[in-house]
Amino acid sequence: MYNFDIERPGTVADAVSALGREEAQPLSGGQTLIPTLKARLAAPSVLVSLSGIEELKGVRMEGGKLCIGGGTTHGRVAREAEAHYPGLASLAARIGDPAVRNRGTIGGSLANNDPSACYPAGALGSGATILTNSREIAADDYFQGMFSTALEEGEIVTEVRFPVPSAARYEKFIQPASRFPLVAAFVARFEDGVRVAITGASNNGVFRWPEAEVALSSSFTADALEGLTLSGDEMISDLHGSGQYRAHLCGVMTKRAVASLV
Amino acid sequence: MPQVKMTVNGKAASGEVEGRTLLVQFLREDQGLTGTHVGCDTSQCGACVVHVNGEAVKSCTMFAVEADGAEVATIEGQAAPDGTLNVIQQAFQDHHGLQCGFCTPGMVMSAAALLKDNPKPTEADVRHYLDGNICRCTGYHNIVKAIMAASGQDVGAIAAE
């Protein structure tokens, strides 16, 4: 790992100011960034650690929405969101392993937007709103392809607001070496319709599956998905699975999620 | 260079570190606490698990600077000062929960974190919790058995296999 300066601001304002330094990068839980630094795939001059900022941590209900601070760990979301939004708490409880969940944060996961990460599916599938130090971004506008988001340089995810569906389930097919999803589906049933988000599958990162949403909005059964297929052309194809295989798994995982809710 | 101060196993510990110094490097190289192991260095194996403010973390995937002011617990603090093993360590010995012993510090620290939150786990709970701790010797059965025994539950029905 190349060396760098590290700063530990106590407030979002100080973090934003520290991120103004040349080649500065934010560090949240570090469960992806630290291995990346070790592999010398990133070489910032300054790391701005967000872990000491208390105002970024916490889980609360406000205006009917579940509001999670950007610096809240997966472990804390798993515990504290359970009473309000069990489908999302269950997603958080299955990220990585217990020690990783005690460091990794929702803001870090969403800022990184790994094409196989769990939280992007939860945020997009819920129709969440991502709050930063300067604005609010709808999940539909936030995810912009593999490792790409609407965030500008130096912009920090301060909070994520989730509308709470009447039922939701995250089903993942684990890639056994990395334990990341090979393909996973997040299905959320709201009074005015169903949202389906898929992670792990596409070359373009997390995406919604509109045909499945329409079918499930008219009949919330696994059978409603019968005959619906996705093309393997835009899917990730690697030694773990072909694009066609991943496309098939999208249907299987979505059906499993629905079947567990009916 | 940044200065860090923390409490390690109840004692004050401080030192000068680089930005990139990992918590495990500080513990092993600066403090001489070599019980915490580095297996994979990629946060997969869990040999480096310690507790920071009571929570299990992988000390190879956290910078020492981020533990500034924290309470850190390592394997060295688990036994009593006279060397008497704690209940988890004793159960690992009684049930042959280790062979080469390389993963054991992380296993014991993860087990301690599990039993703090879930004092009477099921066998499935234990196996699920150890998802991030890899052992290449035992096949896990005796580790699971040891942790179940440490929780005070009858392990007669758990096959040694």
Name some characteristics of this structure.
heterodimer, A: 262 residues, alpha+beta, Enolase-like, domain 1, 10 helices, 12 strands, B: 161 residues, Ubiquitin-like (UB roll), five-stranded mixed sheet, elongated
Kindly describe this structure:
- Chain A has 262 residues and is α+β, with helices and mostly antiparallel strands.
- Chain A has three domains: 5-49, Uridine Diphospho-n-acetylenolpyruvylglucosamine Reductase, domain 2, CATH 3.30.43; 56-163, Uridine Diphospho-n-acetylenolpyruvylglucosamine Reductase, domain 3 (2-Layer Sandwich); 167-261, 2-Layer Sandwich (Enolase-like, domain 1).
- Chain A contains ten helices and twelve strands.
- Chain A has helices at residues 12-18, 33-38, 74-80, 86-93, 98-101, 106-112, 119-126, 139-142, 210-218, 243-261; strands spanning 5-7, 24-27, 46-49, 59-62, 65-69, 129-132, 136-138, 157-163, 167-174, 181-190, 193-199, 207-208.
- Chain A has a five-stranded antiparallel β-sheet with strand order 4-5-8-6-7.
- In chain A, a hairpin with a 2-residue loop joins β4 and β5.
- In chain A, α3 (74-80) packs antiparallel against α4.
- Chain B folds into two domains: 3-76, Beta-grasp domain (Ubiquitin-like (UB roll)); 87-150, Orthogonal Bundle (DNA polymerase, domain 1), CATH 1.10.150.120.
- In chain B, 29% of the residues lie in helices and 14% in strands.
- Chain B has a five-stranded mixed β-sheet with strand order 2-1-5-3-4, with helices on both faces.
- The chains are: A alpha+beta (262), B alpha+beta (161).
- At the A-B interface, α2 and α5 of A face β4 and α3 of B.
- Chain B: It holds the Pfam family Fer2.
- Chain B: One of its GO terms (molecular function) is oxidoreductase activity.
- Chain B: Residues 2-78 form the 2Fe-2S ferredoxin-type domain.
- Chain B: Keywords: 2Fe-2S, Iron, Iron-sulfur, Metal-binding, Oxidoreductase.
